[in-house]
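Dear colleagues,

As part of the handover before I leave the project, I'm documenting each prediction I ran so the next person doesn't have to rerun anything. This entry is a single chain, and its sequence is reproduced below.
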Amino acid sequence: MRIKTILEFPEKLPESILTFFGFLLVLAIGLLDSITNYDLSVSLLYLFPIILIAWYEGAVPVTLISIFSAINWAIADLVSGHIYSNFSIHIWNAIMMLGMFLIVGYSFTLLKKFYIKEREQAHNDDLTNVSNIKFFYEQARVEISRSAIEKRPLTLAYLGIDNFKYVNESLGYMTGDFLLHEVAQTIKATLQSTALISRFGGAEFAILMLGKKNENSVAIIQVVQEHLVKMVKKHGWAVTFSTGVVTRDGPTYAIDELINVAKDLMKAAKETGKNLVKYKILDMQSISS
């Protein structure tokens, strides 16, 4: 659940269409190369489809299109009337051209990996590997506007770890950090790609869910709660979880308002016994469990 950048847009296209387009482009460049005089080189144009495929498709497709580009270059070089003193020179040049295409292609596949890694690091909390607060706010504002336009409910949960201070003091801060990481990953694994998760504060997490029916929101968080309880029992950690859940089904609210409502519900859950989920639908009705 995040904004697609221009570098990610073609990922929406089926791989076969993008690859087919790349090979067609190589054929067109090869045709242009064959009808121009050999003194006028257009070899650099082959790099465009190679870079395109390298960025969006990966190592195997870029290998195939590099070979295809080198073959087209070799054919165009012969058709253009370029005469070599020895035919082996033509073969050697074609091999060198293939090497250049492969080097450029593989370089861009590596660059894409570095780009993805840097993007994730910029968006993620280092300790828990879920969204950081800045990225959460950016995406939440987009999703709130989108849900209002599409007239879909939007649910936000605010989860706090009960007795987290005890873990830090009795078991050490390394164990506390590991607990935070495991909580984040358990939430992430339970909800998969249906929610945006972020760490808020020391031992609190915000969870933004989309398209869930009002009556299902609590059930979904209860499943998260059950998985978390099983996880901490497995590790022997004496902690529980208090969660506030708010669904906006009507007028648009700012993300800060939704977080404040959910946070107040979480605090109320802690004050009334802990290990509870409290739920509210804004401007409609209030339900607690």
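The two ends are 28 Å apart (CA to CA). The chain has a mean pLDDT of 85.

All the best with the project,
I.
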